[in-house]
Protein backbone atom coordinates (compact mmCIF):
# COMPACT_ATOMS: atom_id res chain seq x y z
CA UNK A 1 0.00 0.00 0.00
CA UNK A 2 1.40 3.36 -0.99
CA UNK A 3 1.26 6.58 1.02
CA UNK A 4 -1.71 7.94 -0.92
CA UNK A 5 -3.72 4.78 -0.25
CA UNK A 6 -2.71 4.85 3.40
CA UNK A 7 -4.03 8.41 3.68
CA UNK A 8 -7.27 7.46 1.92
CA UNK A 9 -7.77 4.47 4.22
CA UNK A 10 -7.22 6.64 7.30
CA UNK A 11 -9.89 9.00 6.01
CA UNK A 12 -12.33 6.13 5.36
CA UNK A 13 -11.76 4.81 8.88
CA UNK A 14 -12.34 8.29 10.31
CA UNK A 15 -15.63 8.58 8.40
CA UNK A 16 -16.75 5.15 9.58
CA UNK A 17 -15.79 6.00 13.15
CA UNK A 18 -17.92 9.15 12.96
CA UNK A 19 -20.95 7.40 11.43
CA UNK A 20 -21.20 4.50 13.89
CA UNK A 21 -22.36 6.49 16.98
CA UNK A 22 -24.78 8.50 14.82
CA UNK A 23 -26.64 5.61 13.20
CA UNK A 24 -29.99 6.42 14.81
CA UNK A 25 -29.93 10.00 13.54
CA UNK A 26 -28.88 8.94 10.05
CA UNK A 27 -30.95 5.76 9.57
CA UNK A 28 -33.92 7.72 8.15
CA UNK A 29 -31.87 8.86 5.15
CA UNK A 30 -32.84 6.93 1.99
CA UNK A 31 -30.67 3.82 1.42
CA UNK A 32 -28.28 4.93 4.16
CA UNK A 33 -27.93 1.46 5.73
CA UNK A 34 -27.28 -0.17 2.35
CA UNK A 35 -24.66 2.42 1.45
CA UNK A 36 -22.93 2.19 4.82
CA UNK A 37 -22.82 -1.62 4.78
CA UNK A 38 -21.29 -1.63 1.30
CA UNK A 39 -18.74 1.02 2.33
CA UNK A 40 -17.77 -0.96 5.44
CA UNK A 41 -17.45 -4.15 3.40
CA UNK A 42 -14.87 -2.55 1.09
CA UNK A 43 -12.95 -1.17 4.08
CA UNK A 44 -12.80 -4.71 5.53
CA UNK A 45 -11.54 -6.08 2.18
CA UNK A 46 -8.81 -3.42 2.04
CA UNK A 47 -7.68 -4.23 5.60
CA UNK A 48 -7.58 -7.97 4.87
CA UNK A 49 -5.47 -7.29 1.77
CA UNK A 50 -3.04 -5.20 3.81
CA UNK A 51 -2.72 -7.97 6.42
CA UNK A 52 -2.13 -10.63 3.76
CA UNK A 53 0.43 -8.52 1.93
CA UNK A 54 2.28 -7.74 5.16
CA UNK A 55 2.31 -11.42 6.14
CA UNK A 56 3.61 -12.51 2.75
CA UNK A 57 6.44 -9.96 2.76
CA UNK A 58 7.53 -10.58 6.34
CA UNK A 59 7.02 -14.36 6.16
CA UNK A 60 8.64 -15.37 2.86
CA UNK A 61 11.29 -12.66 2.65
CA UNK A 62 12.26 -13.09 6.29
CA UNK A 63 12.62 -16.86 5.85
CA UNK A 64 14.89 -16.39 2.85
CA UNK A 65 16.85 -13.66 4.65
CA UNK A 66 17.48 -15.95 7.62
CA UNK A 67 18.69 -18.74 5.31
CA UNK A 68 21.00 -16.30 3.55
CA UNK A 69 22.45 -15.04 6.82
CA UNK A 70 23.05 -18.61 8.00
CA UNK A 71 24.78 -19.53 4.74
CA UNK A 72 26.98 -16.41 4.83
CA UNK A 73 27.92 -17.22 8.45
CA UNK A 74 28.93 -20.84 7.73
CA UNK A 75 30.70 -20.00 4.47
CA UNK A 76 32.57 -17.11 6.06
CA UNK A 77 33.65 -19.29 8.99
CA UNK A 78 35.00 -22.00 6.69
CA UNK A 79 36.74 -19.44 4.47
CA UNK A 80 38.65 -18.06 7.48
CA UNK A 81 39.76 -21.56 8.47
CA UNK A 82 40.81 -22.40 4.92
CA UNK A 83 42.75 -19.13 4.73
CA UNK A 84 44.68 -20.02 7.89
CA UNK A 85 45.43 -23.48 6.47
CA UNK A 86 46.56 -21.99 3.13
CA UNK A 87 49.04 -19.72 4.89
CA UNK A 88 50.46 -22.69 6.81
CA UNK A 89 51.05 -24.76 3.66
CA UNK A 90 52.15 -21.66 1.71
CA UNK A 91 49.46 -22.09 -0.95
CA UNK A 92 49.12 -18.59 -2.37
CA UNK A 93 46.33 -19.50 -4.76
CA UNK A 94 44.18 -20.95 -2.00
CA UNK A 95 44.93 -18.10 0.40
CA UNK A 96 43.92 -15.57 -2.26
CA UNK A 97 40.70 -17.46 -2.99
CA UNK A 98 39.79 -17.77 0.68
CA UNK A 99 40.48 -14.17 1.61
CA UNK A 100 36.75 -13.47 1.76
CA UNK A 101 35.26 -11.18 4.41
CA UNK A 102 32.04 -12.42 5.96
CA UNK A 103 30.63 -8.89 5.69
CA UNK A 104 31.10 -9.13 1.92
CA UNK A 105 29.30 -12.47 1.77
CA UNK A 106 26.36 -11.03 3.70
CA UNK A 107 25.70 -8.29 1.15
CA UNK A 108 26.48 -10.26 -2.00
CA UNK A 109 23.70 -10.98 -4.47
CA UNK A 110 22.02 -14.37 -4.18
CA UNK A 111 23.86 -15.75 -7.21
CA UNK A 112 27.27 -14.52 -6.01
CA UNK A 113 26.75 -15.92 -2.53
CA UNK A 114 25.82 -19.30 -4.02
CA UNK A 115 28.95 -19.29 -6.21
CA UNK A 116 31.23 -18.25 -3.33
CA UNK A 117 29.73 -20.83 -0.95
CA UNK A 118 30.06 -23.64 -3.50
CA UNK A 119 33.69 -22.64 -4.06
CA UNK A 120 34.45 -22.69 -0.32
CA UNK A 121 32.72 -26.07 0.04
CA UNK A 122 34.64 -27.58 -2.88
CA UNK A 123 38.01 -26.27 -1.69
CA UNK A 124 37.41 -27.70 1.78
CA UNK A 125 36.51 -31.07 0.24
CA UNK A 126 39.91 -31.20 -1.51
CA UNK A 127 41.87 -30.78 1.74
CA UNK A 128 39.38 -32.33 4.17
CA UNK A 129 41.79 -34.86 5.67
CA UNK A 130 44.18 -32.06 6.70
CA UNK A 131 41.57 -29.60 7.96
CA UNK A 132 40.35 -31.33 11.13
CA UNK A 133 42.68 -29.30 13.40
CA UNK A 134 41.16 -26.15 11.90
CA UNK A 135 37.61 -27.24 12.70
CA UNK A 136 36.55 -28.29 9.21
CA UNK A 137 35.23 -31.85 9.31
CA UNK A 138 32.75 -34.04 7.48
CA UNK A 139 30.09 -32.78 9.88
CA UNK A 140 30.86 -29.11 9.23
CA UNK A 141 30.87 -29.81 5.51
CA UNK A 142 27.42 -31.38 5.83
CA UNK A 143 26.15 -28.28 7.64
CA UNK A 144 27.47 -26.05 4.86
CA UNK A 145 26.05 -28.34 2.16
CA UNK A 146 22.61 -28.27 3.80
CA UNK A 147 22.77 -24.48 4.13
CA UNK A 148 23.60 -24.14 0.42
CA UNK A 149 20.77 -26.49 -0.56
CA UNK A 150 18.23 -24.81 1.74
CA UNK A 151 19.07 -21.37 0.37
CA UNK A 152 18.92 -22.66 -3.21
CA UNK A 153 15.47 -24.09 -2.57
CA UNK A 154 14.26 -20.78 -1.11
CA UNK A 155 15.37 -18.64 -4.05
CA UNK A 156 12.36 -19.10 -6.39
CA UNK A 157 9.82 -18.61 -3.60
CA UNK A 158 9.95 -14.81 -3.26
CA UNK A 159 9.54 -14.46 -7.04
CA UNK A 160 6.42 -16.60 -6.89
CA UNK A 161 5.28 -14.59 -3.90
CA UNK A 162 5.86 -11.32 -5.78
CA UNK A 163 3.31 -12.44 -8.39
CA UNK A 164 0.74 -13.01 -5.68
CA UNK A 165 1.65 -9.68 -4.08
CA UNK A 166 1.04 -7.87 -7.37
CA UNK A 167 -2.36 -9.54 -7.61
CA UNK A 168 -3.23 -8.38 -4.09
CA UNK A 169 -2.10 -4.85 -5.00
CA UNK A 170 -4.42 -4.81 -8.02
CA UNK A 171 -7.30 -6.15 -5.96
CA UNK A 172 -6.67 -3.54 -3.29
CA UNK A 173 -6.85 -0.78 -5.91
CA UNK A 174 -10.24 -2.15 -6.98
CA UNK A 175 -11.42 -2.21 -3.36
CA UNK A 176 -10.45 1.44 -2.98
CA UNK A 177 -12.52 2.25 -6.08
CA UNK A 178 -15.47 0.41 -4.55
CA UNK A 179 -15.07 2.25 -1.25
CA UNK A 180 -14.91 5.59 -3.07
CA UNK A 181 -18.11 4.78 -4.97
CA UNK A 182 -20.11 4.14 -1.80
CA UNK A 183 -18.45 7.06 -0.05
CA UNK A 184 -19.85 9.33 -2.77
CA UNK A 185 -23.30 7.90 -1.99
CA UNK A 186 -22.82 8.73 1.69
CA UNK A 187 -21.58 12.22 0.75
CA UNK A 188 -24.78 12.85 -1.18
CA UNK A 189 -26.95 11.66 1.70
CA UNK A 190 -25.13 13.77 4.29
CA UNK A 191 -25.48 16.76 1.97
CA UNK A 192 -29.24 16.55 2.57
CA UNK A 193 -28.55 17.47 6.22
CA UNK A 194 -26.54 20.62 5.46
CA UNK A 195 -29.28 22.96 6.75
CA UNK A 196 -31.39 20.74 8.98
CA UNK A 197 -28.53 19.03 10.89
CA UNK A 198 -25.52 21.40 10.62
CA UNK A 199 -23.64 19.76 13.51
CA UNK A 200 -23.81 16.33 11.83
CA UNK A 201 -22.97 17.83 8.45
CA UNK A 202 -19.93 19.79 9.66
CA UNK A 203 -18.56 16.93 11.73
CA UNK A 204 -18.89 14.58 8.76
CA UNK A 205 -17.02 17.02 6.50
CA UNK A 206 -14.22 17.23 9.06
CA UNK A 207 -13.90 13.43 9.15
CA UNK A 208 -14.06 13.35 5.34
CA UNK A 209 -10.82 15.34 4.93
CA UNK A 210 -7.81 13.40 3.70
CA UNK A 211 -4.69 14.19 5.68
CA UNK A 212 -1.40 13.69 3.87
CA UNK A 213 1.01 12.34 6.46
CA UNK A 214 3.85 12.05 3.94
CA UNK A 215 6.88 9.85 4.46
CA UNK A 216 8.25 9.73 7.98
CA UNK A 217 11.93 9.61 8.83
CA UNK A 218 14.04 9.23 11.94
CA UNK A 219 17.31 10.63 13.26
CA UNK A 220 19.85 8.09 14.52
CA UNK A 221 22.97 8.78 16.55
CA UNK A 222 25.31 6.71 18.66
CA UNK A 223 28.87 5.72 19.58
CA UNK A 224 30.71 2.51 18.65
CA UNK A 225 33.24 1.44 21.30
CA UNK A 226 35.76 -1.35 21.78
CA UNK A 227 34.10 -4.03 23.93
CA UNK A 228 37.19 -4.38 26.12
CA UNK A 229 38.66 -0.89 26.40
CA UNK A 230 35.34 1.00 26.04
CA UNK A 231 37.21 3.50 23.85
CA UNK A 232 35.38 4.90 20.82
CA UNK A 233 36.40 3.37 17.50
CA UNK A 234 37.13 5.56 14.48
CA UNK A 235 36.39 4.34 10.95
CA UNK A 236 33.82 1.65 11.75
CA UNK A 237 31.64 1.07 8.68
CA UNK A 238 27.95 1.07 9.61
CA UNK A 239 25.58 -0.36 6.99
CA UNK A 240 21.81 0.02 7.32
CA UNK A 241 20.02 -2.74 5.36
CA UNK A 242 16.21 -2.78 5.16
CA UNK A 243 15.29 -6.03 6.92
CA UNK A 244 12.23 -7.03 4.90
CA UNK A 245 13.61 -6.50 1.39
CA UNK A 246 15.20 -9.15 -0.80
CA UNK A 247 17.69 -6.57 -2.09
CA UNK A 248 20.44 -6.64 0.53
CA UNK A 249 22.30 -3.58 -0.73
CA UNK A 250 22.59 -1.12 2.17
CA UNK A 251 20.09 1.72 2.20
CA UNK A 252 22.73 3.86 3.94
CA UNK A 253 26.43 3.46 4.79
CA UNK A 254 28.18 5.63 7.39
CA UNK A 255 31.61 5.65 9.05
CA UNK A 256 32.26 6.61 12.65
CA UNK A 257 34.20 9.78 13.48
CA UNK A 258 37.38 10.17 15.54
CA UNK A 259 35.81 9.16 18.88
CA UNK A 260 33.48 6.51 17.48
CA UNK A 261 30.44 8.71 17.08
CA UNK A 262 27.99 8.82 14.19
CA UNK A 263 24.99 11.03 13.49
CA UNK A 264 22.35 10.36 10.82
CA UNK A 265 19.93 13.24 10.48
CA UNK A 266 17.35 11.50 8.30
CA UNK A 267 16.71 7.76 7.88
CA UNK A 268 13.48 6.60 6.27
CA UNK A 269 11.16 4.87 8.70
CA UNK A 270 11.40 1.07 8.65
CA UNK A 271 13.00 -1.99 10.24
CA UNK A 272 16.72 -2.23 9.57
CA UNK A 273 19.53 -4.72 10.03
CA UNK A 274 22.65 -2.92 11.27
CA UNK A 275 26.05 -4.26 10.17
CA UNK A 276 29.29 -3.07 11.78
CA UNK A 277 32.71 -3.82 10.27
CA UNK A 278 36.29 -2.67 10.85
CA UNK A 279 39.64 -4.22 10.00
CA UNK A 280 40.98 -6.13 12.99
CA UNK A 281 37.53 -6.74 14.50
CA UNK A 282 34.91 -9.44 14.05
CA UNK A 283 31.94 -8.15 12.06
CA UNK A 284 28.82 -7.53 14.13
CA UNK A 285 25.18 -7.72 12.99
CA UNK A 286 22.32 -6.16 14.94
CA UNK A 287 18.90 -7.44 13.93
CA UNK A 288 15.63 -5.47 13.73
CA UNK A 289 16.78 -1.96 14.59
What are the segments in which pLDDT stays under 50 over at least 5 consecutive residues?
none
Number of strands: 6
Radius of gyration, CA atoms, in whole angstroms: 28 Å
The largest β sheet comes out as:
4 strands, antiparallel
- What coarse outline follows from CA principal-axis ratios? elongated
How much of the sequence lies in strands comes to 5-15%
Assign the structural class, choosing from mainly alpha, mainly beta, alpha/beta, alpha+beta, or little secondary structure.
alpha+beta
Q: Please, what is the average pLDDT?
A: 85
Order of helices and strands: HHHHHHHHHEEEEEE
Cα separation of the termini:
22 Å
Q: In which order are the strands of the major sheet placed?
A: 3-2-5-6
**Percent in helix:** 55-70%
How many H/I helical runs?
Answer: 9
Q: What is the domain tally? A: 2
Topology of this protein?
Elements: H1 3-19, H2 23-26, H3 32-88, H4 92-97, H5 102-107, H6 110-126, H7 138-154, H8 156-191, H9 198-208, E1 217-223, E2 237-242, E3 252-255, E4 261-268, E5 272-277, E6 284-286
Antiparallel strand pairs: 1-4, 2-3, 2-5, 5-6
Helix pairs in contact: 1-3, 1-9, 3-6, 3-7, 3-8, 6-7
Structure description:
This protein is of the alpha+beta class and 289 residues long. It folds into 2 domains: 1-214, no CATH class; 217-286, Immunoglobulins (Immunoglobulin-like). It has helices at 3-19, 23-26, 32-88, 92-97, 102-107, 110-126, 138-154, 156-191, 198-208, and strands at residues 217-223, 237-242, 252-255, 261-268, 272-277, 284-286. α3 packs antiparallel against α7. It is elongated and about 95 Å long. The mean pLDDT is 85.
Amino acid sequence: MNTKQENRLNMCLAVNLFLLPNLERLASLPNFTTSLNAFQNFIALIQKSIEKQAFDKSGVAKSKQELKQNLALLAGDNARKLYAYALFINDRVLSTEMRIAQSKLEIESDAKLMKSSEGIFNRAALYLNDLTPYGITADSQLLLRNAIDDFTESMPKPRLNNTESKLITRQMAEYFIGAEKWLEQLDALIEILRNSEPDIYNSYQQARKTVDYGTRSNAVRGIIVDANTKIGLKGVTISFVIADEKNLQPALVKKTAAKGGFNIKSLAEGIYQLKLSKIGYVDQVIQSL
